[in-house]
Design brief:
122 residues; mainly alpha; globular
Length: 122
């Protein structure tokens, strides 16, 4: 069991780096696409990217999808975005906090939306 947890956690940490790469592009597009960028609009637009990633997490992670989204979000944004690579340091703390919370929230919502589909298949 512990080897399985280590394997999954290691994959999630690696995916956190790739999540940061995609999120950076979505963040730039969200900010550049607004004439007067605001925090709420930027978080709303990047939440669409988080929904796509949440769908992929729910599709491929069968054991702990919500935990995976939390680890991917925290390692991607806090670990790689602020600590190791410092790619997100020019943005506000509020934006970083909103980005950290958006992937777990999106994963939860995707799980609630997909749940009736699974029951209908049975």
């Amino acid at each position: 069991m512990s080897a399985l947890v280590v394997k999954h956690t290691s994959l999630w940490i690696v995916f956190g780096f790739f999540y940061l790469s995609g999120l950076e592009m979505a963040l730039r597009l969200a900010i550049d696409g607004q004439q007067d960028p605001t925090l709420i609009k930027t978080l709303s637009l990047t939440f669409l990217f988080s929904l796509l990633v949440a769908h992929l997490i729910r599709k491929y992670e069968k054991m702990w999808p919500f935990l995976a989204s939390v680890v991917i979000s925290l390692t991607g944004i806090v670990g790689f975005g602020y600590y190791f690579t410092q790619r997100l340091t020019q943005y506000s703390f509020e934006l970083g906090l909103g980005l950290c919370l958006s992937l777990p929230l999106a994963t939860f919502l995707v799980g609630k939306i997909k749940l009736p589909e699974r029951q209908a298949d049975k």
